[in-house]
Amino acid sequence: MLAKHLSVGKQIKMQVTAETLENRTVALQVEVEPERVDRAFERVYRQLGKYVEVPGFRPGKAPIGLLRQALREDYVRQQVLEQLLKETMTDAMKQAQVEPYGAPPELDVQQLEEGKPMLYSLKVPLEPSVELGDYRALKVTRYQPVVTEEDIDREIEARRRQNARYQRVEREARRGDVVFVSIVPYFEGESEPGETRWDMVPLDEGGTPHPLSELVLGARVGETREDTVEFPPDYTDPLLQGKRVRVQVTVRGVSELVLPSDEELLREQNLQSMDELREQVRQSLLAEMSQYAERLSRSSLRQAVLQAAKVDISPVIITSRARDSLAALNEQLRRGGYTLADYARGYNMSEAEFVEYWHQRTASDILYGLILAAIREREGIALTDEERQQALQKVAEEHGVTEQEAAESEELEEALNALLTQKTLQFLWSVADVTEEELRIQSKPEQSDNQE
Q1: For a tag on the chain, would you pick the N or C end, based on fewer CB atoms within 10 A?
Q2: For the segment 278-318, what is each residue's pLDDT rounded down to a tens digit?
Q3: How far apart are CA 149 and CA 442, in angstroms?
Q4: Element at 95 (helix H, strand E)
Q5: Domain formed by 5-127, architecture
Q6: Full-model pTM
């Protein structure tokens, strides 16, 4: 985009140059006259001098030259910066006839020294523009949860296994058993064996196998087998972690998994019949799948809304919102004894990857909110007096305050915004081109948090 320059402020000494950038942003270059800068420095030195002891002078009476030596330059400069910005930023934006929207201007100070003009720049975000597409013909998918008899069978089997017990047996170790072993390691370069270790080896039929599972499979109690084994870095015994070791393994006990009978399972679940259990499982799976189907359906609508519209927004708004929300998250984690890196690991990300993800997620949330607001305005979607009153009463009850107090609260504003969003989404579903699709447990697609 061709930059547009505007010089304003000829009647006063402060000079402001405005340049229109892309993405609804105006860049201001501000020059504050050196006389004003010097006055600010002198004022700050005098203010701080009241609290500094200078030999031979009463507080506040020392010459500026001595105060310069007594006070830290960086601290003085920060105080001057804050005062001059407070005095000049608003005037600079007024001169350029711009007003920030949604976030404070992005500041960059290039020069601040005594005897020289102060130079700084501002990137001022303007109100975003939203170009709505054909939102009355969005192609979206509404997912319908389906629970089959096979799903119920699998869930009952899972519950049966959760209530299973292990029982000692006098036979060879088989798949599904748990084998208790002693381990004598022989480390390379050492003449004597290492100290005997003990472990429990599950012979699971699925999942990641235990490093000793193949060695003890088929062995009986008292039988010893020997082999070289590669132990993984996360092995429970620190002495063997990540090492390739020759070991003698002796089986000390074999236990098999004993699943509860139908009667035992029903007693554990506090139910009377298998039909009752199957119905309980059906309702539980259906409730879980319904929630998941609703999230996927909302995600389908959200993606369609975002793709159908075009939003021109200043990156200053997105950066500011992401930075503020990330700082709030950091503080919340700190109070709980965690770090952002800990939190990022929950997303299988590094801290840097999570910060980037958070910025993208913030941008998506902002754009989605702006588009819905534009649709709401065009369609005249609003809350009725009855809806507002119900929201007011609910906020008052939930927070234990009077309706008058609730009427002035941020919680009420959030509740009203949520209701408006809900009404807007209901409207979009009513006019969209909707395809119904079954959602089954065995075919659930993966969904990230940011697809909402």
Answers
A1: N
A2: 999 999 999 999 999 999 999 999 999 999 999 999 999 99
A3: 13
A4: helix 73-96
A5: 2-Layer Sandwich (3.30)
A6: 0.75
